[in-house]
Amino acid sequence: MRKTLFFLSAAAVVSAPVALSAQTAVRNLPARYVQEAQQQHPAVVQEFGGADTGPRGAYVDSVGRRVAAYSGVNPGSYRFTTLNSAVENAFAVPGGYVYITRQLMGLMNDEAELAFVLGHETGHVAANHAQARESASQRNAIGGILGAILGSVIGGGIGNAIGQLAQTGSQLNTLKFSRAQEYDADRLGISYMTRAGYDPAGSSTMLAALGRATALEARVQGRDSRSTPEWASTHPLSENRVSQANQMARGTGRYGTGLHNRDQFLAQLEGVYVDDDPAQGMIEGRTFVHPDLRLAFTVPTGYLMQNGSDAVSIEGSGGQAQFKTGRFSGNLQAYIQQRLQELTGGRTQVQIVDNNRTTVNGIPAEYVVGRAQTSNGIVDVSVFAYAFDQNTAYDFTMLTRGGQGIGQFASMVNSLRRISAQEAAAIRPRVIDVYTVRGGDTVQSLAGRMAYSNFQAERFLSLNGLPANARLVPGQKVKLVVFGQRR
């Protein structure tokens, strides 16, 4: 679910004023878009780990509706959902459904920043950006034809082919925008939040928080196997954009005034999961471990993992893979053929070049290596499947350049193992703890309590938007990430 990148001159953006005039006539959203959004909603929620239907979800919905009241669209047309996802993301669909992940909320430090993100996404809907991009969206729609999808794998390095394939069933119709539309959504979001009573400075501080997270991620990426934050990578995020948002916020004449509701916002973050939910498995360095499924595997050095609700995506310079499960009748060959059918849609010819059975750490396994011709060259498609028991199978589906077969993924497919009950019980989630600073507390002393083995001080500073020379004041509230208990 990605929004495309685009270009716009700084002059064009800065010259556009942030209107704070009286609210325009209220209108309803097109019925077709509303119906599509309603149909897609269950698939979105499932793909992103479920929705928060408790007080936190209600809080986000209330902030979203407060901001959306100034969008010119009937506020009842919008629905704001908080998703249980470790991906830092916010997005909207044309029918008025706006989504934000708990991971992105964890980066925020007050309600004004939340209002800006929800206002930005609301702006895309209200400005009918979907209609302007609909033809491009259709051209870029995810399909089941292997050759079409794998063109990006051969042409420009390993892309998001398998992750896209995982979405072929839901066909999630999220908005894809031009750079001009993204900046327009910034402008609209600033307008909405300001008219709703929030300090428009929350726009630039939110974008700066994303910039900090991205920069820190670049430093630790090889260690914790995370990809660039989704909202950062799919929106034009740069120092220039932060500066432009700052100028637009100042242009409202209300910069530095208005609501922040910091304490109320931080109270909503208390106990929120950070990074992975153990119920969906957890990424620790180069290892993925799932306490409920009682399994673990390790990816090669330099490869990155992205954990989803029903699959783990892996990518690096030598290929891309996905780990998941499927229907299993006890026949691994039938299981593998089913996976190949899903991958190709039955419309691309795959020539089998290797087919064998083996045992991995005591687990019966079989694999197939196939070869397919695409417009950009030959691609190897491999499926390595494991019979965990008579009713359960798991597999790695891998894409590599022609002739490489399983290639650099050999260590990964041979690393899958069962974990013990004791090992599973020891796995705990990371959660946000809102802490009130006491006398004698320092950045270093509090950073030492962060539930990470590396970059503790840097993570603490980034999470709280503090400079490197920050001095903490008794009574000040800060966020810590600590180990919590499974729910």
TrEMBL record:
<dbReference type="Pfam" id="PF01476">
    <property type="entry name" value="LysM"/>
</dbReference>
<keyword id="KW-0479">Metal-binding</keyword>
<dbReference type="GO" id="GO:0008237">
    <property type="term" value="F:metallopeptidase activity"/>
</dbReference>
<dbReference type="Pfam" id="PF01435">
    <property type="entry name" value="Peptidase_M48"/>
</dbReference>
<keyword id="KW-0482">Metalloprotease</keyword>
<dbReference type="InterPro" id="IPR051156">
    <property type="entry name" value="Mito/Outer_Membr_Metalloprot"/>
</dbReference>
<protein>
    <submittedName>
        <fullName>M48 family metalloprotease</fullName>
    </submittedName>
</protein>
<feature type="domain" description="LysM">
    <location>
        <begin position="433"/>
        <end position="480"/>
    </location>
</feature>
<keyword id="KW-0645">Protease</keyword>
<dbReference type="InterPro" id="IPR001915">
    <property type="entry name" value="Peptidase_M48"/>
</dbReference>
<dbReference type="InterPro" id="IPR036779">
    <property type="entry name" value="LysM_dom_sf"/>
</dbReference>
<keyword id="KW-0862">Zinc</keyword>
<dbReference type="InterPro" id="IPR018392">
    <property type="entry name" value="LysM"/>
</dbReference>
<feature type="signal peptide">
    <location>
        <begin position="1"/>
        <end position="21"/>
    </location>
</feature>
<feature type="region of interest" description="Disordered">
    <location>
        <begin position="220"/>
        <end position="242"/>
    </location>
</feature>
<keyword id="KW-0378">Hydrolase</keyword>
<keyword id="KW-0732">Signal</keyword>
<feature type="compositionally biased region" description="Polar residues">
    <location>
        <begin position="228"/>
        <end position="242"/>
    </location>
</feature>
